[in-house]
Amino acid sequence: MHKNNFNLLRLLFAVGVIFSHSFELLRHQDPLEASGAGMSVGTLGVCGFFLLSGYLTAQSWTHEPRALAFLKKRALRLYPAFIAASVLSVFVVGPLGASTAQYFSDWSAHKFFADLIGLRQPRTPEVFANSPVPSVNGSMWTITFELRCYLLMTVLGLCGVMKRRWAILLLAVAVNAAAIAGAPMQRGEQGDALFGVSGFMLWFASLYLAGVGFYLLRERLPLRGRFAVFALLGFGAALFATAPVMRAATVTLGAYCLFYIGQRQSPLLQKLRMRDDLSYGLYLYGWPVTQLLALWLPSIAPLALFACVSAICVPIAFVSWRGVEAPALRLKPAPTAQARPVAA
To answer: What region holds the Acyltransferase domain (predicted)?
Structure first.
């Protein structure tokens, strides 16, 4: 079992996304946003996913700095479960929530396969017409940005940038400065492109590169409990501040808290550590299950919906992990190189 708490954190992030969607799809406001914060619980979860992804894939590249091996590992992590969830979303959930009797005659196989390749949420004929977000699987929209971040890491590695800590940190600061200036943070927000890069890509890349930076500084940046307490207090206050302050705090104070908890060694956290990583399955199936229950039980309360969706999706995520994700991960190429130090 891994000697860290990252699987547990990812599980909590996925549950947080389901929590937010349980309110959103019933036309209620997320409780955190309703209290005046600039982020929903789900948005915090997505931010955590990208911060952790940057940290862990930087570790992967450092230990195995080969582009093809790196991309194969990333593809095996993303594609199999994504394809399975897309098929179920389009061919099972879509017809159940279809707003037209000609669902399959209007469905486009070309678009479906294009969305699979690009890891985009599947496009379907009209579904869930009365939903505030009439999508068969609205959670999937972030996965394509995860893929782009992996491609960014590959380019940086091939160009030798990953061997230069200072170069990565400068890039992370520059991208974060651009994102803090006004990139959108969650679905529905508007943001302008910068040098042809979408606002969403800037924000997700800023989180990802912040995670990379924390990995590269892991031996120089002390993760201490007292520092984490102050970081948590500062981050909590920043959630209710202006958007630029909140964004800056997310990639610094929030990230510090995240990696402190991720590496924290305590008897309680050790008991909660999980070998099975259910987070991806929960993330992929939470939305379609929420949509269906919101359609069939329109008067259900958000918290009751959250409890029902969680109870249904945990076994689905377990089957996804044991039947799809873990077998795919066993196909990863064996490492052939030792970890290489990163230059200062």
So the answer is: 5-319
